[in-house]
Amino acid sequence: MGYVLPGLSVLMGLYWAVKAFGYRLWVLNGPGGGLFPLIAGILAIIFGVVMIMRRYRTKKKSDFSVKSIFPVVSVIGIIIASYIIGLIPSLGVFIIAWMVFYEKEPWLKSTAVGIGTALVFYLVFDLWLAVPLPMGLFELI
Amino acid sequence: MENIALLMHGFAIAFSLENMAAAIFGAVAGLIIGAMPGLGGITGVSLLLPLTFGMNPTTAIIALAGLYYSTMYGGAFSAILLNIPGDSPAIVTSLDGYKLTQKGLPGKALNASTVSSFIGGTIGIIILTISGPLLAEAGLAFGAPELALLVLFALTSIGWLLGDDIPAGLLATAIGLMFATIGVDPALGQTRFSFGQINLLSGVSFIPLVVGFFGFSQVIDMIISGEDGAVATKVRIRDCVPTGKEIKMMLPVSIREGIIGTFVGVMPGAGATTSAFLSYIIEKRINKHRDEIGTGSMIGVAAPESSNNAAAAGAFAPLLTLGIPGGATTAVLLGGLMMWGLQPGPLLFTEQPDFVWSLIASMYIGNVICLILAFICIPILVRAISVSKKVLVPIIIAVCVIASYANSNAMFDVVLMLICGILGYLMKLADVPTTPMLLTFVLAPMLEQYVRQSFDMTRGNPSIFFRGGICWFFIVLILLVSFSPLIKNFYLKMKDKKAN
Predict the structure, then answer these.
(1) What are the phi and psi torsion angles at A27 (to 5°)?
(2) Does the pLDDT value for residue A12 go beyond 50?
């Protein structure tokens, strides 16, 4: 997994460098929109390659774990659920589910933390700051 | 002496019940908003501004100013405790602040931040009291070329933060630069790398980016490492109080960086982030404890905190005397002044002395209120992070989601946070530091804009970058910083030769 980021940087660097010419490097007596992306792209390619070669030489292994996928999947789940039950209930349900199923905490404690956090979010973001939070299907009511 | 008399008159107005209540309200709201990841001074001032419409202008500006600089206090809290900077100046604070938390010393970090914020803020206000109009004139000497060189100096100095692994640091810088070039370019106003997304037209939002790279990737790391240490450490309150030796170590740093921060805050466009970053670099270079900075040092917390609070005070000089806002938050304050029918400019000090001097007096009072409030909050905050990781991890994930969403009320920013979090974690796996990436992301758009403006001023003649003493000062600094490793190596080789 240690190769992913340098590899991605090289690819992104190539894209940035090629697209930079389309934005023009020098225009109207000054640097155009492409100059900084070109510099960024070239740096990413050079140092991405250096990092790949170094990792290949040292054969260093990274500490990747499948567990890293859990929070990513959770956030995707929260995003989807927010369109159905709204954002704040989704966050409350997520906290309860995480504590019960992943951390093996008691139901009562997990429910208290989940509802308590959701309530704080509601008071701060909805009532005080008036952020228009997604309501999901509740918007129809 | 005349200023002192006017200040006393200002204190008399500021001490009225109505104005004191406004200052306390602003300070409390600012502390809460600043401490929340994702909500900074600009959000707080923008939210409070409409509520002040019906108020007396003096009371309104006292509430808003109190909120503005208390967000600087609060911004450090989430940076220190959760490694999620509340706003951009707090990025630098998180470098050493979170490391102190990991060492089980969150209270010391919070105290260092609070005390140095108070010292820096007080220095800034004193300088503003004595020489506000003069300071604003000095700030105006910084045009686009000078500011371009100042930002370039800050960018070249990132090398001091890279550590031993230069290629990894430069790769992080390149990634930051790529993110910074997304959005409308300052030359022709054309859209770059927006991938057809309306949400990317104005560039990558800072909040989802910082929450993702710092907060969310940190959560992934905590889950994998199974670490329960930093966040679950039981901390005694008495361990939070800085010792005499620590105060002695922090005091000169806070004073020095408070003075520097005030002058950086006065420059239009430079602001609290640049000042925090410069202060950290300066201490990393000159402080006798410099080797400890970056490993969890109170100096590494004190320097940026003192500096960004001083910059917040310094930013009022050009705002009040010239009507030039130093940054986005002061631009909103300028809008407020105009909304209340006041015209900022050289005549404001003479035509509206009650308004100006009661504002300055309220800053002294507000700074003391912030200090007291922050000290009250520290034991509560320290206890709050003493909860188990099993409870804290899902709450942090939920905070990451809602803070990103609240940034622009769009689910796109939550997706962006997720992508940045994954990238941040991949950077950790590849041993690439995230800090140079984030600092480049903040500084590069400023550099691009100032370089473009400079060329526009002379129709493409680069001689503008050599136009005066300030330019030459920064050119010499940039050369020194860039070539200092070579000079150092050469010096060491010569020394070795002599010894042999």
Answers:
(1) -145, 140
(2) yes
Indicate the residue among A58, A83, A101 that finishes a domain. Answer: A58
Closest Cβ opposite residue A30 in set B187, B401, B414: B187
Nearest partner of B83 among B222, B245, B281, B252, judged by Cα = B222
Same domain, yes or no, for A9 and A50? yes
User: How do the residues of chain B divide into helix, strand and coil, expressed in percent and rounded to 5?
Assistant: 80, 0, 20
**Cβ neighbours of A8 in B, within 8 Å:** 426
Q: Which residues of chain A are within 8 Å of residue B419 when distances are taken between CB atoms?
A: none
B138: CB partners within 8 A, 6+ apart: B263, B266
Residue B390 near chain A (CB below 8 Å): yes
**A134 chain-B contacts, CB cut-off 8 A:** 411
A42, A75: one domain: no
Show residues of chain A in contact with B421, CB under 8 Å.
71-72, 75
Please check whether residue B232 is in contact with residue B262, taking contact to mean a CB–CB distance below 8 angstroms. Answer: no
- B216 interface with A at CB cutoff 8 Å: yes
The domain of A106 spans 66-140
Q: Which tokens in the block code for residue B339?
A: 């909304």
Assess whether A71 and A51 both reside in one domain.
Answer: no
Q: Are residues A121 and A95 in the same domain?
A: yes
Q: Which residues pair with B191 in a beta bridge?
A: B184
Domain ranges in chain B? 2-467
Contact map slice: B 408-447 vs A, CB within 8 A: 409, 411, 414-415, 417-418, 421-423, 425-427, 429-432, 444
Q: How many domains does chain A have?
A: 2
C-beta atoms of A16 and B178 within 8 A: yes
- Give the tokens for residue B5: 């008399």
- Sorted by sequence, the CB contacts under 8 Å of residue B371 that are 6+ apart come out as B114, B115, B117, B118
Residues of B in contact with A76 (CB under 8 A): 418
CA nearest to B426 within chain A: A5
Residues 106-135 of A with CB under 8 A from B: 113, 117, 121, 124-125, 129, 131-134
* A108: its two tokens: 């009562």
Q: Which residues pair with B259 in a beta bridge?
A: none
Contacting residues for B483 by C-beta, under 8 A, at least 6 apart: none
The CA-based dihedral angle spanning residues B346, B347, B353, B359, taken in that order and rounded to the nearest 10 degrees: -40
B318: Cα separation from own chain's centroid: 18
Rounded CA-CA distance B80/B71 in Å is: 14
- Mean pLDDT per segment of 10 residues, for chain B of length 500 residues? 79 86 86 72 73 79 82 82 76 87 84 90 87 71 85 74 73 93 85 89 85 84 66 57 81 92 77 83 84 86 91 82 70 76 74 82 86 82 72 88 87 94 90 83 86 90 88 88 74 78
User: In this structure, are A40 and A100 located in the same domain?
Assistant: no
d(CA B374, CA B351): 36
Place of tokens 């006393």: B8
Instruction: For tokens 């900022």, name the residue.
Output: B344
Cβ-Cβ pairs closer than 8 A, A with B, add up to 191
Q: Is A132 exposed, middle or buried (0-12, 13-18, 19+ CB in 10 A)?
A: exposed
